[in-house]
Amino acid sequence: MKPLLYAIGPLLFDSLGVIVFAVLLALHLDLVTATIAGTAAACGVVLFEIARGRAVAALQWISLAMVLFSAAATMLTGDPRFVMVKPSIVYLIVGAAMLRRGWMNRYVPPADLPLVGDVMERFGFIWAGMMFATAAANLVIAYVFTPWWPAFIGIVPLASKALLFAVHFTIVQLVGRARTRRASKLEICAAQ
Question: Does residue 122 carry a pLDDT above 80?
Answer without folding.
Answer: yes
